[in-house]
Amino acid sequence: MRDSDDRSPQTVAELAEQLRRFAEDREWQQFHTPKNLAMALAGEVGELLAELQWLTPEESVRLMTDPGLAGRVRAEIGDVMIYLTRMADVLGIDLVRAADDKLAEVAQRYPADRTRGSAAKRRP
Amino acid sequence: MRDSDDRSPQTVAELAEQLRRFAEDREWQQFHTPKNLAMALAGEVGELLAELQWLTPEESVRLMTDPGLAGRVRAEIGDVMIYLTRMADVLGIDLVRAADDKLAEVAQRYPADRTRGSAAKRRP
Amino acid sequence: MRDSDDRSPQTVAELAEQLRRFAEDREWQQFHTPKNLAMALAGEVGELLAELQWLTPEESVRLMTDPGLAGRVRAEIGDVMIYLTRMADVLGIDLVRAADDKLAEVAQRYPADRTRGSAAKRRP
Amino acid sequence: MRDSDDRSPQTVAELAEQLRRFAEDREWQQFHTPKNLAMALAGEVGELLAELQWLTPEESVRLMTDPGLAGRVRAEIGDVMIYLTRMADVLGIDLVRAADDKLAEVAQRYPADRTRGSAAKRRP
């Protein structure tokens, strides 16, 4: 149950708005500096890694077929998205546009016709 | 410049679709196991931390006023979003919903009226 | 209480030896690939960050005066050292020498007389 | 080449001493709060992960046979050790003892005779 009268957010912008209100309601904005949020983001990514660290790559591909593991991974991914969205919002960065701009750069560096299947530094 | 005939994605779903095509065009799906993508995500978060590690919290709040730093942080956040979106897509997880579900849980654990401004374990 | 007849290790080499025996006793060597160990290392660093993420830099300087926090941070640092030592051992890398060699490189890049107190990219 | 009149450190204590002098010579102690050092540590672990992220587990086992990769991984492990040692030193924590104490705890939780080869949460 989330704070009364909230509807579920459908977009990153709505999620950011909800996280902003969530922080304001608890007077947590003071803690939400970009520095602190970057640490929190990294902490959550660490928890996500911990769920996958002993799996083989093949087991990781099938992880959603294990309901317990699937739920934990989904929750950790949710946590990562929460802090990433909050950090971007605090900095005034549009997440999808930042990703798209970066992808455009990567596409230029790794043209499809020259990097197909190559084991070289593959990104992203 | 990104692959021809792409329009800029406006939503996480469109970004995910674009990343899927990007990987297929380069035959990189084979490398995009959840395990590998989690590592790549963590690697990018590490680069983001590196931009902020020596800043004071106050400097981090003002970081967008430094054009060079702002550009680098925006690019790193873009990279983090790329791998987070790609990982969620590979697993069939809706990022915004996973975040919203997690937020609902956190809201229950930290009701606004009892945690206001508290320095206790603050989340998120 | 650790496995019988162990004495406490005094050096990194003795710690590495103890971790090797620990893994062998449990038949965990199969899981201790460099890839998996790097993920486990990152997971533990994430837990360490989580202990510090909401502290001000000043609070972090005093953290050892809070017995509960001090114990948790020490335990997390112990975990990080465990996986770092294990990973280096599996790869045949001498931790102290690898650090010293890297430090020599950094010393050349940042000579003391030209970087004193500078806020530029400070390493390490 | 490191600062004149240094001999190579042989132990963690000597490495810590050398890092202390290194920071003092550059007046970097002011930046070396536990919070900042934890971020720097995580940043270096991110660079280490980046070297391993696209390798199969089997490729990661053989990585030291590739001289270029071996050198990069060794350098990243050196960086991780530098910040871990510096952070422990700033906090007054003995790295080897902290690891040993943690290992003793883990040994109790995962007795050898009951966890042999098991795929359960394996630590460490």
SSE layout and pairing:
Four copies of one chain form a homotetramer.
Chain A: H1 12-25, H2 34-52, H3 57-61, H4 67-91, H5 95-109, H6 112-115
Helix pairs in contact in A: 1-4, 2-4
Which terms summarize this structure?
homotetramer, 124 residues, mainly alpha, Helix Hairpins, disordered N terminus
Provide structural commentary.
The structure is a homotetramer of 124-residue chains. The first copy, chain A, has a single domain (2-93), classed as Orthogonal Bundle (Helix Hairpins), CATH 1.10.287.1080. Chain A contains six helices and no strands. Chain A has helices spanning 12-25, 34-52, 57-61, 67-91, 95-109, 112-115. In chain A, helix 1 (12-25) crosses helix 4 (67-91). The longest helix of chain A has 25 residues, at 67-91. Chain A is globular and about 50 Å long. Residues 1-5 of chain A have low confidence and may be disordered. Chains in contact: A-B, A-C, A-D, B-C, B-D, C-D. At the B-D interface, helix 2 of B face helix 2 of D.
